[in-house]
Design a protein that fits this description.
two-stranded antiparallel ribbon; Beta Polymerase, domain 2; globular; 8 strands; 202 residues
Length: 202
């Protein structure tokens, strides 16, 4: 949290999974051209819900459905950045009123979703490292075909298993995601250095 921002109250210190663990059977769908439109509709819905609280939230499409050409679970993931994660009355209550349902409340993060579970909305505080990680991975997979195919192959290898909870499936991808993010950070830093050198040569 930036030093000049004071939270209204302490954040939660434990993880609450509303409804408990949910056994899932993961299926992958080929990239669907409708996914970006689903995101746009929910971005509008989120922005309108938060506007009365005076929150001009940053709303981004993340996850595999945000990467053209990548097979994915048919769940559109959205990340929302709010000024104060502890001020749930400003964002969580409006999102629930807009029809989303609370699934996860944990330190620094809230997850709401549609009743159909087809759209997941992750809420973090502005500047959270998690947001940078989501966007870094998304932007890299959009441009790096080798890592995009690597990620797709790992996901295919995980098909057919029964998972006690969606988080278990996510945990199984941790190693490959960490490796891809490391390459993405290196590529981003190399691009920044090249830009600085080019600027210095002018």
């Amino acid at each position: 949290m930036p030093p000049d921002r004071t939270p209204r109250r302490p954040d939660v210190t434990a993880t609450e999974i509303v409804g408990g663990a949910e056994a899932v059977h993961v299926s992958l769908h080929e990239y669907d051209e409708r996914w970006p439109s689903v995101f746009v509709e929910h971005r509008r819905r989120i922005v309108e819900a938060l506007a009365p609280s005076g929150i001009a939230a940053d709303v981004e499409h993340i996850g595999s459905t945000s990467v053209p050409g990548l097979a994915a679970k048919p769940i559109v993931d959205v990340v929302v950045a709010v000024p104060d994660i502890t001020a749930e009355e400003d964002y969580l209550e409006p999102l629930l009123a807009a029809g989303y349902e609370l699934r996860v409340r944990e330190p620094g993060h809230r997850l709401v979703r549609t009743p159909e579970r087809s759209v997941h909305v992750h809420v973090y505080e502005q500047g959270a490292d998690a947001i940078d990680g989501y966007l870094l991975l998304r932007d890299h997979l959009r441009t790096d075909s080798a890592d995009r195919e690597l990620y797709a192959s790992v996901k295919r290898d995980l098909l057919g298993r029964r998972w006690d909870d969606m988080n278990d499936y996510a945990d199984a991808k941790t190693e490959v995601i960490a490796a891809i993010k490391a390459r993405a950070r290196a590529a981003r830093e190399a691009a920044r250095q090249a830009a600085r050198q080019a600027a210095g040569e002018r």
